[in-house]
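To: structure desk
From: M.T.
Subject: fold request, one chain
Message: Could you run this one when you get a chance? Sequence is below, nothing fancy, just the single chain.
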Amino acid sequence: MRKKQQTIFNKKNAIGLFIILIMTMSVLGIYVGSGSDNTDTYNGFKFIQTKQGYSTEINDKPITFYNHPTTIEYILFDNASKDILKNAKMLTITFDPADSAVQEIELARLELTTQLQQFANIYLVTGITNQTAPYAQFPLISCANATVYQPVIYFKTGETTAIAAQGSCITATANYRGAILTLKDRIIYQILNIMN
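Reply: Done. Structure tokens follow.
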């Protein structure tokens, strides 16, 4: 009886070779894909996406945002607000302690205070629109207190997400809680001339 001659390309080996080929291509795809660049440029600023958000540098110091500028260009930001912020050396942040987004407003307020002092040399004061514990130590401040020299930014929730000024008071309105931090990013982008 004659033995069958074995070849590499029999049915059994073809399946194994096919699986090896798929695994090899997968590894090559992951290797090539891992080299993809997670940076881009917006208005002359280089942004890098990190786990914390989108980072760029201002005067060789890193600053991180929750949102990339291209994703928040849709926010209505009137020219009067832009003009107020362009000349500001001191700002007052105010809010209603009973607002449903008070935690997000608090985070935005703290980050604005830190980032604007560090990157724009703007001093921030905090006030509240009505005396409520645990905010009783803050002064009562509303849009009526806004002046050319010390504009007020009033954070609140509402029906739309927009930044609009009336006199020297800028109202930053968010239509959902998470949009408060988006408004915070948009304000800082404007002050730092990252967005126009």
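Reply (cont.): The longest strand covers residues 90-95. Let me know if you need anything else for the meeting.
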